[in-house]
Automatic annotation (TrEMBL):
Residues 79-130 are annotated as: Disordered. Keywords: DNA-binding, Membrane, Transmembrane, Transmembrane helix. It comes from the Bacteria. One of its GO terms (molecular function) is DNA binding. Gene3D superfamilies: Photosystem II 12 kDa extrinsic protein. Residues 140-159, 170-189 form the Helix-hairpin-helix DNA-binding motif class domain. One of its GO terms (cellular component) is type II protein secretion system complex. SUPFAM superfamilies: RuvA domain 2-like (SSF47781). GO terms for biological process: DNA repair; protein secretion by the type II secretion system. The keyword Iron-sulfur does not apply. The chain crosses the membrane at residues 45-64. Residues 82-130 have a biased composition (Low complexity). This is DNA-binding protein.
Length: 194
C-alpha cells in the first residue's frame, strides 16, 4: 500500500475498481440488465397463444360434457327414486310372491339404464311415433317411459289384471304410486286402444 498512487488509494476508498470504464460502461451494464432474457418473435407468440386457446377450449368442452352427464344422471336418479319411493311403503299390497321376484330381477337392468340410456334394448316412446297400449304392454315396455320404474310397471300390470282392462289413461290414478303429476308426465307416451 505504501507504493500505491494517490488515485488508486482514492479509488479503493470510493469502491471504484481501476478497470472501470466510466459512465459509458455503467450505462451498458444497466441496459444489459434490463434487456429481456427470452426474446419472442411475433409468430412464436401467436403459436403460444393458439396453443393456450386450444387447451382452454378443450378443458371447457370437457367441463360442459361432465356437467351434462352429471345433471342427466341426477335427473334419472331422481325420477327413479320418485317412481320407486311409493313402492317402498306399501309392499303388502301385492300378495303373491311372483311380482316381488320379477321386481328384484328387473331392478339391476333399471340401475344400469341411467348410466347408459342408449343401451336400453327396447325403443323409447320419444324415438317412435307409436304409443304404448296400457292393455297389452309388458313391464319392459312400460319401463321405457321416464318416470316408470320396474315396481310401478308391475303395479300397472297388476291393476290391469284386477280391473280386466283399462278404458281410459286416467285410470292410472288408481295405481299406487301414480299421482296427478306422474300421470301428466307419462300421458304423452301411453294410450288405451279399443
Amino acid at each position: 500500500m505504501d507504493g500505491a498512487s494517490p488515485s488508486v488509494m482514492l479509488g479503493m476508498l470510493a469502491g471504484v475498481a481501476v478497470d472501470d470504464g466510466g459512465a459509458d460502461d455503467l450505462l451498458e451494464q444497466r441496459s444489459a440488465r434490463d434487456r429481456p432474457r427470452l426474446a419472442l418473435e411475433p409468430r412464436h407468440a401467436t403459436i403460444i397463444i393458439l396453443i393456450l386457446v386450444l387447451a382452454l377450449s378443450l378443458s371447457l368442452t370437457l367441463l360442459v360434457q361432465q356437467g351434462v352427464r352429471l345433471s342427466s344422471m341426477s335427473w334419472d336418479e331422481g325420477a327413479t327414486r320418485a317412481s320407486d319411493a311409493p313402492s317402498a311403503s306399501p309392499p303388502a299390497s301385492s300378495s303373491s310372491p311372483g311380482p316381488t321376484s320379477s321386481e328384484s330381477s328387473s331392478a339391476p337392468s333399471d340401475t344400469g339404464s341411467p348410466n347408459e340410456p342408449s343401451a336400453t334394448p327396447s325403443p323409447t316412446p320419444t324415438t317412435t311415433s307409436t304409443l304404448i297400449d296400457l292393455n297389452t304392454a309388458t313391464a319392459e315396455q312400460l319401463q321405457t317411459i321416464k318416470g316408470i320404474g320396474p315396481v310401478t310397471a308391475q303395479r300397472i300390470i297388476d291393476h290391469r289384471a284386477e280391473i280386466g282392462r283399462y278404458t281410459s289413461v286416467d285410470q292410472l290414478l288408481d295405481v299406487t304410486g301414480i299421482g296427478a303429476k306422474t300421470l301428466e308426465k307419462i300421458r304423452p307416451y301411453v294410450e288405451v286402444r279399443s
